[in-house]
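Sorry to interrupt, but I need a hand with the structure work. Could you write out one complete protein record for me, on any chain you like? Just paste the record in under my message, thanks.

. . .
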Amino acid sequence: MTIPSKVRLVEVGPRDGLQNEKQPIRVADKVRLVDDLTAAGLSYIEVGSFVAPKWVPQMAGSVEVFAQIKQAPGVTYAALTPNLKGFEAALQAGVKEVAVFAAASEAFSQKNINCSISESLERFLPLMDAAKQQGIRVRGYVSCVLGCPYEGSIAPTKVAEVARELYHMGCYEISLGDTIGAGTAGETRRLIEVVGSKVPRNKLAGHFHDTYGQALANIYASLLEGIEVFDSSVAGLGGCPYAKGATGNVATEDVLYLLNGLGISSGIDMDLLIEAGARICAVLDKPNGSRVARARLAQA
């Protein structure tokens, strides 16, 4: 299959990247991050999530963040909404697109959201109905697609079942998440082949963590399978509190470097992106997780 000539990156740093940070993060710093990412040319930014603060304290300021960011024409500013209550809160905040998430692992689903996969999907039905009535697009996530910290290997057919349910439920796009970052290129291609038999490939996206250093290889494998959308996090921020040892998402800077090398258009300015990542890492007082950013900043 021919590699796509254009790729859309879904920037999840402000949500997936910051939600596991232990230290408090000011709303102003979150707003600056989103504005920096907008300036860098990201066309899709997951700004926050509308969940109970006791579960994800860092996302408590999502309403204020949405109120203060400078929303640019043509850019999607989305939020994660796990249930109808979260969706209604997002709607009041003026959010125009939301995301829901399910797992391909029963054990992970129980540990993460205290219910079975089927129960989690049932919870989305009223949300999907409300979104349809309000004209709000819904994106779906499936976690643990290439392995689970509790169950180990996950059958691609199981991933395909969950992805198909989300798609038929009304999710316009399904992001396949390698939550523990253990997948390999061969497994990735097989996964897309199986899931692609149930959900059109142009409705699939890749979400790869880099725990085993395989994220870029898996993205390249996905490109060979015709996937044109990938989730990434500026400076490689993020992780998973329910997956012990799992490092952050693949860094947006590193994915962009790969795409640029392949001649694939993304519309993102590398210099501004690196600046955005360096600024938020300074705020967090933590090392930059992007290899490309570290190399470029060392040369500056």
